[in-house]
Design goal:
By secondary structure, the chain is an all-alpha fold. It contains eight helices and no strands.
């Protein structure tokens, strides 16, 4: 029981820390603070990748997605990848029982993630709010991995882990969004008070 709690907690924290580091870079422009969460996220990614071939497949597809996004030219992300590599080298990769099945899984999960990304760009929140939310919260990937666990039952814990990963990811996004809104409100209030004082 404790092992499962630690397993799913690792997924949750990996998503939380990845999004926190990402938003510190892109939304808050605080690269100096992004190093720690991205390095810790890399540590968790590496640990999860060494648990089983199914976890390795999922995390590999996510890493390919990050590489495809072009964000790896940012130093904190490079550090995260270095940490992943170090952990994998130290712990070793899990045994892959069927290389062709494993590669097929990686490709299918990566394509599902790409579809979510493209769908989020194509859909309009006003015209089709349901479709917008479906792609925004990456349901193509999350549902696809659950469906893939039917022919590959051992994938199920990884599929559930992905939902925990995404939960952490969205909580971090919500926290940063609220922080930005509070900062905007604070600046607006200050500006109004200053203008009021001048008048």
């Amino acid at each position: 029981m404790i092992d499962w709690v630690m397993y799913f907690s690792a997924f949750f924290l990996a998503g939380l820390l990845l999004k926190t580091g990402d938003d510190l870079l892109d939304e808050l422009d605080r690269q100096d603070l992004s190093w720690v969460p991205l390095a810790l996220s890399g540590l968790l990614f590496g640990l999860i990748m060494t648990v089983s071939e199914w976890d390795l497949a999922l995390m590999t597809s996510i890493i390919i997605g990050v590489l495809a996004s072009g964000k790896v030219n940012r130093p904190p992300f490079i550090v995260g990848f270095i940490v992943i590599a170090i952990v994998v080298i130290l712990r070793g990769l899990p045994i892959i029982t069927g290389i062709y099945d494993w590669m097929a899984l990686v490709v299918m999960m990566f394509l599902a993630a790409v579809l979510d990304e493209r769908g989020n760009d194509w859909t309009d929140k006003q015209i089709s709010p349901r479709a917008y939310r479906f792609f925004k919260f990456r349901f193509t990937l999350k549902v696809s991995v659950l469906l893939l666990s039917i022919p590959w039952p051992l994938l199920l814990p990884t599929a559930i882990g992905l939902w925990f990963f995404d939960l952490g990811y969205e909580i971090a996004a919500w926290i940063v969004k609220n922080r930005l809104q509070e900062g905007l409100i604070g600046k607006t209030t200050t500006h109004v008070l200053e203008n009021g004082g001048e008048s």
